[in-house]
Design brief:
9-stranded antiparallel β-sheet, 14 helices, globular, single chain, alpha+beta, Jelly Rolls, signal, 698 residues, Glycosyltransferase, 3 domains
């Protein structure tokens, strides 16, 4: 049984790696096949990504050229999608509707987002293994990416997103994407271009200085576009539902900005000299400051969103997995800039939000604000890379425990119960729905992010061994949702809007309860053997509008007493500002916990209120997993009091436990000198987490 990451064991078989020509294997390998893999064998297999690559001719277009374009007018780029065929092979396709007459897709065959991230995969693989083929693919995909960058005119420095199979650019895709044309303003694809250019410069600086100089020129062009755009607004703040948000983030997001930060950090770590380096350092500092400003201070006290760095300035209640690289970005920047203050946001997100995310059912694509999305490799990879980067920067070993369970998603610890990545072929499924249904396709984005995860695991052997030891999720017990419309309503009605999307959040279940002044909402909630925190989700209007008082139905059956849980404001959201809708649909904390075994929550309002749902959070959430490393459970504290909690587990077992505080640091000996192994008692620090490995007594 594994007591630490360094001794987590897997089986002793060989991990077969397919040759580059193999493209028909699926990601549906059995868990037993993964158990046979040696932890020393590489997980990273570029076969499928290589299959996605195509040679792309470069038409002569004003404002678009690349390195050695005249000498070699052909580059490489990955097809956007790969649909799985009945025989197990894959068909490469583009985005949007295909016009058979022209061979053009409504969007295109290739795109800057995937080309930039593919370049990062090849760069990291080359640097990690010395593989000359990956070096060549990195060179060609970087040439492809820089061709998409506009070099002259008012849009200079920005990037065209889509390209057709014959190399023709498609600046205005169908369906319409913003900005339109795609190089008319800064964008996610510009941010990802900065990521690839920065890592490309660092890799080629000594190996091919001439090419590195070209990449530096294009990075300088990108930075000029950013400084003329969002970075030109530094250090101003916008207002979003009454709260200040940084006005200088790329595409209004910590998500896009984080990927640019990773490239700028890599570039500066190569110690370049000259004016571009000074500009890049300023941009890195400003973007990192803006990302850290999106960290939720209230998360430190256990309130929703539990310490997450929020990804989008235009919504206080939408967290999505595409923002998951933000902790990795500020953790890395904290070291490059020698700014420990940046690390606080990364640690809070990684040590507090990530465990709650796992306990709520795994790495969902979004909380908006309730969990309700599929799970994809992008979100899993973003969590994994962020946990590892933050663990390294903060010297916080507990985060690697979280990382191992997170990475287990690829090996079967997910809602489908099947591996999501196949190391024999390098394919990765395109997603898992909430009901466990699997999208068997293996497009560029999923493939790329799965490979970035495998590169991370291959670079960290102890973590890799621990992750391979997690192949199934036994159970989760964490954040849950009870719809307001399921309750008994007095003095109100259920409203079902035409769309569940408000412009910045989703109505949970597609409906909500409108209560009039004096109205009451009585909601039955599942019983539990422990106390729980309750977050009513309220659509707060802009102006103050009274309060809703929340109580239990009774303190215990037969007593007739109600216990006050707290109050929530019906309004007072503040000025709408840059958001897409007035007011905010937000989970609000209550001062007191719902007692164990209580089964009713009652809300009574003194003014009009819009109530969406209740988020119910156990004081101790759990994630139980199993696999070659044995049975293990992660215990996660939502207790805001500065106290340690004890949880009793079934007798007849011995356990080895590792306890960590709210920053991922080991806690002092909880066992008062009796050692780690105790029968039936788990200790969890306030706001922290403990991982326990179980074994039967003999």
């Amino acid at each position: 049984m594994a007591a630490t990451l360094s001794v987590a064991l897997v089986g002793t078989g060989a991990l077969a790696v397919a040759p580059a020509s193999a493209v028909t294997a699926t990601a549906g390998s059995t868990p037993s096949a993964l158990r046979a893999a040696e932890a020393s064998a590489p997980l990273t297999n570029l076969s499928h990504l290589n299959f996605l690559l195509a040679e792309v001719p470069l038409p002569v277009i004003a404002g678009h050229t690349t390195y050695q374009a005249t000498e070699n007018p052909v580059v490489e780029a990955p097809w956007t999608y790969a649909d799985k065929n009945d025989d197990g092979s894959y068909s490469r396709i583009g985005g949007g509707t295909l016009d058979p007459a022209t061979g053009y897709y409504g969007q295109g065959a290739f795109n800057a987002d995937d080309t930039s991230r593919a370049a990062v995969v090849y760069l990291r693989h080359w640097q990690q293994t010395g593989d000359p083929t990956s070096r060549d693919h990195a060179f060609q995909t970087l040439r492809s990416l820089t061709y998409l960058q506009t070099t002259e005119g008012p849009n200079a420095g920005n990037v065209v997103l889509w390209q057709q199979v014959d190399g023709t650019l498609n600046p205005s895709a169908e369906p319409v994407e913003l900005p339109d044309p795609s190089d008319s303003a800064e964008s996610y694809w510009l941010a990802r271009t900065v990521w690839a250019l920065g890592e490309g410069y660092a890799a080629f600086a000594d190996e091919d200085p001439e090419f590195a100089a070209f990449l530096e020129e294009r990075l300088n062009l990108s930075l000029a576009a950013l400084n003329a755009g969002s970075l030109g607004d530094y250090p101003n703040f916008d207002v979003a539902d009454g709260d200040p948000v940084p006005a200088w983030l790329i595409a209004d997001g910590a998500d896009a900005s984080a990927e640019a930060v990773l490239g700028l950090a890599a570039y500066l770590q190569a110690e370049p000299a000259g004016p571009t380096a000074a500009i890049a350092e300023t941009a890195l500092s400003q973007l990192s400051e803006g990302i850290a400003a999106m960290s939720t201070v209230e998360g430190a006290s256990g309130d929703w969103p539990f310490g997450a760095i929020m990804p989008w300035t235009k919504s206080p209640s939408l967290w999505h997995a595409w923002g998951g690289l933000a902790p990795a970005a500020v953790a890395t920047a904290s070291e490059v800039l020698d700014d420990p203050a940046l690390l606080t946001a990364a640690v809070q997100d990684s040590a507090q939000f990530s465990p709650q995310l796992l306990a709520a059912g795994g790495p969902d694509n979004a909380w908006s604000p309730t969990p309700g999305e599929a799970q994809i490799a992008y979100g899993v990879d973003s969590r994994l890379q962020s946990l590892v980067a933050t663990a390294d920067a903060a010297d916080a070993p507990g985060l690697l425990n979280i990382a191992a369970i997170t990475a287990g998603w690829y090996f079967g610890a997910n809602r489908s119960g099947l591996p999501a990545y196949d190391p024999a072929t390098g394919t990765a499924i395109d997603g898992i729905e909430r009901d466990g249904r699997v999208n068997p396709n293996s497009g560029a984005e999923s493939t790329i992010h799965a490979l970035l995860s495998m590169l991370t695991l291959d670079a960290n052997p102890d973590l890799k061994a621990a992750a391979l030891g997690v192949t199934a999720t036994v159970a989760t017990h964490g954040l849950s949702v009870v719809e307001a419309e399921s309750g008994i309503i007095t003095g109100g009605t259920v409203t079902t809007p035409e769309s569940s999307w408000t412009g910045e959040a989703n109505w949970s279940g597609g409906a909500y309860v409108d209560l009039a002044a004096g109205g009451t909402l009585r909601i039955t909630v599942p019983t539990d053997d422990q106390a729980r925190r309750v977050h009513p989700i309220v659509n707060q209007v802009v102006d103050p509008s009274g309060t809703t008082t929340w109580t239990t139905g009774t303190s215990r059956p037969g007593t007739g007493k109600q216990l006050l849980l707290g109050t929530t404001a019906n309004g007072g959201a503040g000025e709408q500002g840059v958001t897409e809708a007035p007011g905010q649909l937000l989970p609000l904390p209550l001062a007191n916990t719902l007692p164990a075994r209580a089964t009713e929550v009652v809300g009574t309002t003194d003014a009009a209120a819009q109530l969406d749902a209740l988020l119910i959070q156990p004081l101790i959430s759990t994630v139980a997993v199993t696999g070659p490393a044995g049975d293990s459970t992660l215990f996660v504290s939502a207790d805001v009091a500065d106290t340690q909690r004890r949880v009793d587990v079934p007798r007849g077992q011995q356990l080895v436990q590792q306890a960590f505080d709210a920053t991922g640091q080991p806690v002092a000996d909880s066992h008062k000198g009796t050692g780690d192994k105790r029968s039936g008692k788990v200790f969890i620090a306030a706001g922290g987490f403990t991982q326990v490995w179980f074994e039967s007594k003999r």
